[in-house]
Amino acid sequence: MIVQTKFHAFKTCTTCTICHHSTFSGLHSSILSTFFIVSVACPVLYQMVMKAELVFIPMPRMGHFVSMVQLAKLLLDLHPNLSITVFMMKLNPDAKVAAYVHSLTATRMKFIDLPPPETHEDGSLSNFATTLLQTHGPLVKQAATNIVQYSTSVLDSPRLAGFVLDIFLTPFIELGNELGVPSYVFYTSGAAFLGFQLYVLDLHDEQNVNIFEFKDSDTDFTIPSYLNPVSSKLFPTVMLEPESFPMVITLTRGLRKAKGIMINTFWELESHAISSLSDASALPVYPVGPILNLESETEVHQSSDIMKWLDEQPPSSVVFLCFGSGGSFNGDQVKEIAFALEQSGHRFLWSLRQPPHPSKGPRASPTDYDDASEVLPEGFLDRTHGIGKIIGWAPQVAILGHPATGGFVSHCGWNSTLESIWFEVPIAAWPVYAEQQLNAFELVMELGLAVEIKMDYKRDGMDSGEIEIVSAKTIEKGIRSVMDEGSDVRRRVKEMSEKSRKALMNAGSSHSTLRDFWEDRLGGYVVASANPNGSLGTYPHPQPRYWCSWPRVRRDRAFVRESELGVTSRGARASSLCDGYCRQQVGRLGIGKIIGWAPQVAILGHPATGGFVSHCGWNSTLESIWFGVPIAAWPVYAEQQLNAFELVRELGLAVEIKMDYRKDGMDSGEIEIVSAKTIEKGIRSVMEEGSDVRKRVKEMSEKSRKALMNAGSSHSTLRGLVDDVMNNMFTKNYQADGILANNSLDPTKCPGMHCS
């Protein structure tokens, strides 16, 4: 049945005079009957779709490159409308990187080989940043410009949303600024060391401290990202040398120019360091790890003799010795390690590599021995036959993941650290260069996840002094300690391993933070990619309360504090959007989630959402009714106060927080602060499961859906409007020909049309 409504002119609902909003007769029946309104619209739920593209620029070295590609994969998994392009620079290229790229099959990710630079590179560390911009800057800019030009000329192509840069490539932030896109940094070390870098920058720039004075000292520093005082003996050599220090300072200053930093760590591992970064700087940090390359099938196949040997060993019986891609020792130190292994009596797998020739410079990598027996003690291989195995390059992930591996003598590179935690293998810390000494300090002294062999050992090619020899007795002690089956270290590593895996699961700390990164920083590009399940998927139904303020309204600190008290005192699970909101309080309770831009329709439609603290914008009101979610009304500006009044007083579909609150930028007076007690009262009320408000919202939700069905109120009224428009059109066009009579059409006189 089609209802044709007679009217002389369109009028606007009295509660919708500011903007053209939508309604339906079940909601506004009394007003409609008074003003003869034709409700031509209905609850409109929509999302805007735009595709986005990120450009990743990693260092072409395996440790950095692989981590960034794995990060790209995680982002692609979260957002189907995202694509990623990786720029591959010819900067000390690594053949393993090319082989790794060739093995990848990821969709929506492509790799662009940049041409070699035309200008000659300056190999000095002091000029690294300047040289990088001069040689590779034009190449990166041209490749990015090509992407921008393509996106603006081809319909439905993704828009360039930003750069993601390696820590060593922060000079390219300037290029991002020139192109008008934000730049983000992926930090491949831990949060504690990031705090150390920023601390050193502050010493240099703000306090005028000459860091070189501490090169040979044992001075303790109180650094916010560490719980214990840190000795200057553990400072990386690169920060204590005049040649390299300017590069470090330039790169660290670049960090502060980024729009955000993603860190390859997770909250459960470095909660203190992450909190210290959040407290000390306005720069957003996102712990998104552990990001690892666990796809080592090719490595295992190529090293089947290694894996076959491990298969023959008892569980957790083998100590694995490996010092990273740059770790190697001279003959004297090799002999001390061999004596220690023999005396310990433990089974071992030792990645023994030959130091590069001095003529190749300090950046050259170790190589495999043609014959390792020439550097080992005489008879060592015969005496350890059956319990030990000497290898060259090691498939580290495969070895750490093997059940026979029970301990790891490691240089404490950050990737190796995360891999050992992932596979529950405790570390005996023997750092070699770079930030490894501070990583070892954190693992041993701060977290209790490792034992010490020699925490302040250094051999990085930058010191001209005599190289220290660690004794066999010290090494043996560390091996015995790390292989202790019932130790507290082993127990803690097992617990942290479980937490590391949960961090990447749906609703885990890093999974949620990675989603936060997108929503906070890039959500405006891919609206429709929001996953309705999101991080609310593990919450019981209908527990969480969803809070959304009008996006353009900025909140002051007093407002935020009162809101925080209201949320945490209620104890309700919260998903909150407020500029400047302190995430730590709710995060520590484990009951809430703080986000930036909100995929509101997806959240309101999720069965876990049980209440909505809202500004009462009309679209938000209709969406909450559609999904049966009651509102706690806190209007902000425009017609929202009247919407709130109607919802609370007229319809009984909402509870009140502060109906007459106003903060629209037009008042010059003091801004009212709504108390935590008032907010808490509203939260408790809206979350009451058996309330009359919840019952009425559920009933109105059913009516809103029926309104759009065939013969429903809005469906019928819209058909009536179409009929009236068509009648008016034919009246105007055919009245002179006498075709139209009264308000009906004669089908015989308008052939080809089906008229009502």
From TrEMBL:
Transferase is among the record's keywords: yes
Top-level taxon in the UniProt lineage: Eukaryota
Keywords (A to Z) from UniProt: Transferase
Transferase as UniProt keyword: yes
Alphabetical list of PROSITE patterns matching this protein: UDPGT
GO molecular function: UDP-glucosyltransferase activity
Alphabetized InterPro entries for the sequence: UDP-glycosyltransf_plant (IPR050481), UDP_glucos_trans (IPR002213), UDP_glycos_trans_CS (IPR035595)
Ranges in a coiled coil: none
CDD domains, alphabetized: GT1_Gtf-like (cd03784)
Cited Pfam families: UDPGT
PANTHER family (UniProt xref): GLYCOSYLTRANSFERASE
Family indicated by similarity: Belongs to the UDP-glycosyltransferase family.
Protein name as catalogued: UDP-glycosyltransferases domain-containing protein
